[in-house]
Write a structure and sequence with these properties.
This protein has about 475 residues and is α+β, with helices and mostly antiparallel strands. The protein contains twelve helices and 13 strands. Strands 6, 7, 8, 9, 10 and 11 form a six-stranded antiparallel sheet that branches. β9 and β10 form a beta hairpin. α9 runs antiparallel to α10. The chain is elongated and about 80 Å long. Pfam families: PDZ_6.
Length: about 475
Amino acid sequence: MRLAEYGGGKSYSAAGNRPPSVEPIRKVRIIRPSFFLLFRRICKGAGSMEIAASLAHKALAALLQLAAQPFYYIGILFVLLQYRKQIVLERQLFSTRLHSMLDTAWKTVLWGIVAGMAASFVMAFIGATVPFGAILWIWALSALLALFRVRFICLAYSVGVLGVIKAILLTFPALAQLDGVGKWLAPIDQMPISSMFALVGLLHLLEAFFVYKQGAAMAMPVFIEGKRGRAIGGFQLQMYWPVPLLLLVPLQSGGVSAALPWTPLFGGEMWSAGWTFAALPIMLGFSDLTTTRLPVDKAKRSAGGLALYALAVLGLAAAVQQVSNLTMICSLAVIGLHEALMLWSKWREAAVPPFYVHNEQGLRILSVLPGSPAEEMGLMPGEIIDKANGVPVRTKDQLHEALRTTGAFCKLEVINTDGHTKFAQRALYAGEHHLLGVLLAPDENAKYVLVRRNIHWFSAAGRRKSALASSSDKGRSV
């Protein structure tokens, strides 16, 4: 007997070669999102949907608690005011705005919500204990520290200060029993600082991701005063996110007495009594300045530094969890490492000559207006305009004159950031920007530069009377 192979002329003998084995039909498995798989396993491990209903009910109650608190709305208002100030500075420096306040604000709020959801989910497995009094402490300290520097509103500083107070209470426990003072210190005394360190580390990992993805788009071109007194160009990277957190915390009163189907990393026996959700709105903030790098490069470097800091803080959280006597050292390290990160960035900037200045090759492009002819022509920040319509240009007036005399067409010879020459050309139309939408690096005629102040981080712009005017000569600010 012979078996014919379907679709071909080859045959097989029943006594000789066997036909190729037929593979069984494979079942297709529908892959669901990992979050729902984990949630389903948790509920299955609990034996019923009771735990799922309790989670949903308490999470909804915490959302209502969050909506009733003023702190989250204060954070949103702070973001609106900061971006409004940024647009005022843009108009002051460039006579136009480069960002939309509402568009930037709603994206910031949306990213903050995403960060809150991600951090809340992870912290449910790490464990957190945050009494309501500790929330008041965090916001009060953040507001107080922001009076010195806006970037001090970052959670790392307020949690670091709380850790120092916690260490003092561990050394002198009688302070928590004093009349009048004890009730104010009780929330700090009851708060496991290791879980707060873990929260700081986790949020800075998210912040590093946001800076990596959004830093270049949010960067604002600025004029500042260089070491020799002349104006130079740069980019200010300043971002803030209001983050609403729903933290799973051990039961104090009115929570769920049923045990969790998993054991959080921090807290130990505190979870045996039950659990509930607590709303904790916080602010994440990032501020940096570059005069030596492109915004995208600076954002990547800053994100890498933030990620390293976050991992270090997570290590400090684990150390404090194991050895409580390290609370003071680790608390100071949370603050000190954050400051060291900022100082390291400043040192690297100071060690390199400024990039956004004009030179003998031509005019340095600081930025390009969105939707402008320059953007359509492919001009990029950091590039140098060497010639316009065949005419070498070394000043803004020369560029304007070369563009004006040619009528309805322009051709630019540009040196890119790699040192190669490229050509860009385009027809010109009535009503378009007189410099094609190019924002050039400042020259000796720059009217405004940003001024460093002790209270705010580059929060004011002073009027520039001359190319070598000192800070005291900048009379008017915005």
